[in-house]
Automatic annotation (TrEMBL):
Keyword field contains NADP: yes
GO cellular component, one term: nucleus
Short name of one Pfam family: NmrA
Record organism: Exophiala xenobiotica
Keywords: NADP
CDD domains: NmrA_like_SDR_a
Name of the protein: NmrA-like domain-containing protein
Gene3D superfamilies the record matches: NAD(P)-binding Rossmann-like Domain, UDP-galactose 4-epimerase, domain 1
């Protein structure tokens, strides 16, 4: 009998990748039956999942009753959380994570797989306090580890999709047809990137294939590390434009952003000082890539499949 794998964010990037990769794996598709949890079961993406014989249920992470219904009878759950904004951003996101995890325990699930992130606050010993989207997930991870349920963790690098979905962090036109990619970090800073749509599920598949082996473990998900200078060059090659990298001050970078300037400025400053995953980040990624199921997409390969474009 198949295990029911409940997936939050099923119509989004991470959850969709988990479902797609389970369904495409001959062994795991027999071992697990995905249950897509979505706020809108009538959306086009939800209907597309139903066409693939995936069970689709309505569940809103902020609505306890709907989460209880969505997890009823499930064995495994993949949990991902979206950032909250405002003065209570960290606690709001953490409380959502905590509520879902608590319900998973109450409903007698066997296993939680949680999409976490490194804590900038912890890595910097309290120096960086504004990176709430990372810190809330790290706090959620710590909490899940205290619960009487097996768990494992996915800790993803930057999504390659962000080059399109976060244009406010993209190259800035110089007015002469050239562009500048600016960060408050040195050009040599290497950051991890993953093709979230295609590859996040490959890391989760490794956990699903051997859940007992990886209980308590974290898969640091990235296809590789790329310096900021390399990223500017790759984006330039893909777009056919001249893009150069420039390091700017914290204040200049913060003021260039339309919102959450402190979060992004402190985030890149923390990564410049401690690394995205903290000490030993490349070794952590090497271990993860050696244990996954499937080939990962490199950033050059991704940009070849999905050419980067800039408005002239």
């Amino acid at each position: 009998m198949s295990n029911i794998l409940a997936v939050f964010g099923a119509t989004g990037t991470q959850g969709g990748s988990v479902i797609n990769n389970v369904l495409s794996d001959p062994e795991l598709s027999n071992k697990y039956k995905p249950r897509a949890i979505t706020r809108d079961a009538n959306s086009a993406k939800a209907k597309a999942l139903e066409q693939r014989q995936v069970e689709v249920v309505t569940g809103d992470a902020s609505d306890r009753t709907s989460v209880e219904r969505a997890l009823a009878g499930a064995n495994f759950v993949f949990i991902m959380s979206t950032p909250s904004w405002g003065p209570d951003a960290m606690e709001a996101e953490f409380n959502t994570i905590k509520s879902i995890a608590d319900i998973a325990v109450e409903k007698g699930l066997d296993y939680i797989i949680f999409s976490t992130l490194p804590s900038c606050y912890d890595m910097s010993h309290g120096k960086y306090t504004a990176v709430t989207a990372f810190d809330a997930k790290a706090k959620g991870e710590k909490y899940i580890k205290t619960l009487p349920i097996k768990s494992a963790f996915l800790c993803a690098g930057f999504f390659m999709e962000n080059f399109v979905t976060q244009p406010f962090l993209g190259p800035i036109p110089n007015g002469d047809g050239t562009y500048t990619l600016a960060r408050n970090a040195p050009s040599t800073l290497k950051l991890p990137y993953v093709d979230a749509t295609d590859d996040v599920g490959k890391f989760v598949n490794a956990i699903l294939a051997e859940p007992d082996k990886y209980a308590g473990q974290t898969f640091y998900a990235a296809a590789g590390f790329y310096s900021l200078a390399e990223i500017a060059t790759l984006l330039g090659k893909s777009s056919g434009k001249t893009i150069t990298f420039k390091q700017v001050s914290d204040d200049e970078f913060r003021s260039s952003l339309p919102f959450m300037g402190d979060l992004f400025a402190q985030g890149f400053a923390c990564q410049a000082e401690y690394g995205y995953f903290g000490p030993g980040g490349e070794e952590k990624v090497d271990w993860a890539t050696q244990n996954i199921r499937g080939k990962l997409t490199t950033l050059p390969e991704y940009l070849e499949k999905h050419p980067f474009s800039l408005e002239t």
